[in-house]
Design brief:
- The protein has 137 residues and is an alpha+beta fold.
- The protein has a single domain, classed as Gamma-glutamyl cyclotransferase-like (Hypothetical upf0131 protein ytfp, Roll).
- The protein has 3 helices and 6 strands.
- The protein has a 5-stranded mixed barrel with strand order 1-3-2-4-5.
- Strand 4 and strand 5 form a beta hairpin.
- The radius of gyration is 14 Å and the shape is globular.
- The mean pLDDT is 95.
């Protein structure tokens, strides 16, 4: 399924991985919000952790059709995600992202903390109260 991606950390415009992974591979990038998650500070990058009352700010990124497959592989590698691998740091799930421009909900891939990582973050992590990596201050 060729869903857009919801990026909320180092893949956002102006952040370290944006140009490395997304430049030249995307057709559009739109600000949006993912409900049902909260944001934790990681070692130089954030983790979204599922939490019903939370919301995280980010960008809805639509890949160019000819770049989609390569981008998916590159993002899975960046996020250290492999389907079914118990060592995953992140899991890639489908989420409903609300676009800022029109309030429409769009189904997208999002990388959230894997269960073991999420449990550790809930116990000892640093919550980013704003839900926005760019204003984590």
């Amino acid at each position: 399924m060729r869903l857009p991606f919801f990026v909320y950390g180092t893949l956002r415009p102006g952040e370290v991985n944006h140009d490395l992974f997304l430049r030249g591979r995307t057709g559009s990038q739109e600000p949006g919000r993912l409900d049902g998650v909260v944001l934790y500070d990681g070692p130089g990058y954030p983790y979204a952790v599922e939490e019903p009352a939370g919301a995280v700010r980010g960008e809805l990124v639509t890949a160019l059709p000819e770049a989609y497959d390569d981008l998916l592989v590159a993002l899975d590698r960046l996020e250290e995600y492999a389907p079914g691998d118990p060592r995953n740091l992140y899991e890639r799930i489908e989420g409903d992202v609300v676009r800022d421009a029109d309030g429409v909900s769009v189904r997208a891939w999002v990388y959230v903390a894997a269960p073991a990582v999420a449990a550790e973050l809930r116990a000892r992590g640093k919550l980013i109260d704003s839900g926005d990596w760019l204003v984590r201050g």
